[in-house]
Amino acid sequence: MNYTSTRSACAVSSSEAVLHGIADDGGLFVPLFFPRLPREIFSLMTGMNYIQRAETVLRCFLTDYPQNELHHCVTAAYNGPFGIAGPAPLREVEPGMHLLELWHGPTCAFKDVALQLLPHLLTSAAGRIAPGRKSVILVATSGDTGKAALEGFADVPGTEIIVFYPCDGVSEMQKLQMVTQTGKNVSVCAIEGNFDHAQRGVKQIFADASIKSFLEDGGMSFSSANSINFGRLAPQIVYYVSAYCDLIATGKIRYGEEINIAVPTGNFGNILAAVYASELGVPVKRFICASNRNRVLTDFIRTGVYDCNREFYLTDSPSMDILISSNLERMLHLLAGGDYAEVRRLMSELKNSGRYQIPAEMLARLQRCFYAGCCDDRNTGETIADLFRRDGYLCDTHTAVPVNVYRQYLAETGDSVPCVIASTASPYKFAPAVLRALGDGGTGGGFSAMDELHRISGVAIPRALAGLKDRPALHCSRISKDDMPRFVRDVLAGRNG
Ligand SMILES: *Cc1c(COP(=O)(O)O)cnc(C)c1O
């Protein structure tokens, strides 16, 4: 029993945390303590492949999973779907700047690394603690989570998955990927609103007692594939540990030397996983939190004031267009030293006024290890063009943001410690914007932009994206956000009836 809620003391196992997704008090599940991996384990992991490293790291967190089940889960997730590159190859693009390519999975974004594994973790947990019950996965997506979750859960026995995306907030490719999804247990629906509306709507459904009892009667329960689920975060911790091992294995650093980690941030899940990796023993000097024009996190880290009463912008990096970063709550829990009352206070202020300020000592702790910066679409485009011309490396609109912010950091501090930058999507997933950045004003939409980008760069187009052209749209519902509960009921009634 080593997980608690961020908002009040409770004790659940890792299986329960994965299965339920969110705590009953509305808080998020967090580990009560982090083991520190000794030097010998790092030495061993340096000689291991990704699957073995994943098992080693996940055993620290998923403590009640039987060893053979965990082995089965990890092997099923990572042996195959990511091709020969594996889930997390590290590429030194400029001296000291290492891009951790996390988009070699089936949907071409980093969320595959977690969402190829989560269905296995979830069904394993369900088989042990809630046999015979169906898990209903509700997802709010800013674009990439939805498809990655659909791809992970499609036709997984004992699960049902329902995805909501903001109708105007996702790229053409992201939308096509979702509406063409096949599977007997999948539903996809556009909502009128932005990502925060979708996320809030899903949270409200989770908290709705009448829907809950409706599910109960049908032998079902909700779970989440969003990064509020600890089962999403745990697999992301692995690749930061793995990157550190790769730096040792290739002689770039010696064990114990510090690195920086820069992450394009939206819901704060990916960068939080880096923080958790450092708790395990990866020596991180600075976490570089990079935002697009929706710079709520930049302002928070610089001032200690989190304020989402501001204009919301649609940008070329839509998966970072977020004003309410759910996983920040876990960071607050860590910064507050596990003070539940303080987290409750901050979260209720956020709910009531959209704004809170953390106490000075929490801010000092945060600033000791975090650097924050942001860049707009123009600077993002310039970074894409610069990286391509200088290094022959093509990156997407999300990855360009931390590259840009890392350069701001370098200019300000001169800190030349090796930096691992999370590269979170294939450039082909956002081809029109990448092409515009390269000065090619093509207007022909996603597929012709992919062809043109291929002509310019010679980088192969992922088959999963090219193949979308010929797939029929299967999911065309579009509803107001207030109709989300009804949509969920209708889907589930239809499945059971
Ligand atoms: C989801 C996503 C992000 C943001 O990650 P968070 O964990 O939400 O902070 C960044 N880039 C891409 C491509 C994404 O899909």
Unreliable residue runs? none
In whole angstroms, the N-to-C terminal distance is: 38 Å
Continuous helix count: 22
Name the bound molecules.
pyridoxal-5'-phosphate
Kindly name the structural category: alpha/beta
Report the strand count: 15
Q: What is the C-alpha radius of gyration, as a whole number of Å?
A: 21 Å
Shape: globular
Q: Largest sheet, if any?
A: 6 strands, mixed
Bin the helical content.
Answer: 40-55%
Residues in β-strands, percent:
15-25%
- Strand ordering within the main sheet: 3-4-14-9-10-13
Mean of residue pLDDT values: 94
Explain what the structure shows.
The longest helix is centred in the middle third of the chain and has 20 residues, at 230-249. The strands form four sheets. This protein has a six-stranded mixed beta sheet, with helices on both faces. Helix 2 crosses helix 11 (230-249). By secondary structure, it is an alpha/beta fold. It is built from 22 helices and 15 strands. It is globular. It has helices at residues 14-20, 39-46, 50-61, 67-78, 111-115, 118-129, 144-153, 172-179, 195-207, 209-217, 230-249, 269-280, 296-303, 328-335, 340-353, 360-369, 377-391, 400-413, 431-437, 445-457, 463-466, 484-496; strands at 3-5, 29-31, 90-94, 97-101, 134-140, 159-166, 186-192, 220-224, 259-264, 284-291, 305-307, 355-357, 370-374, 419-423, 477-480. Residues 109, 111, 144, 227, 264-270, 319-320, 398, 424-425 line the site of pyridoxal-5'-phosphate (PLP).
